[in-house]
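ok trying again, last paste got cut off:
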Amino acid sequence: MKQISYNREKAIAYCTQWAKKRNPAYQDFSTMGGDCTNFISQCLYAGSGVMNTTPNYGWYYRSAKDRAPAWTGVEPLYRFLTGNGGKGPFAKECSIENMIPGDVIQLGDETGHFYHSLFISGIDGAPTPEGIFISTHTFDAHMRQLSTYVFANIRFLHIEGIRT
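nice, full thing came through this time. structure:
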């Protein structure tokens, strides 16, 4: 399997185009539990160009009824990105200092349940809650400061590359 670089510029361009609207090529899951992870997956796909079509454990979208759980679910996306040894993007959980535009943040509650995925669309200065700007769906946002969110837990996923 070949490893290639994640095209952060393409992912960010996609994010900028679609953060405040919906790409008609994808189902909008806003009224079915949320569209945040679906949007983050679209951004990641724009920067990777590679899906992993492994049934149940992969990361792919063919239609609203033919998609991997990782495409639209917060926890399944985390498990896929941090455990992926096959095709598609892969990530490592890291500290805020290692985050750059094109990476993913997930928010959780006090019990450790993670419920929201965010895409880093920009950083101003150091990667701090005040300097990181995110984009997401469900409660649509583009270039919103991370520090404006209320959460009990947070995890940072740095996209390390793509396998083809």
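cool. The first helix runs from residue 8 to 18. Residues 3-19+30-163 form one domain.
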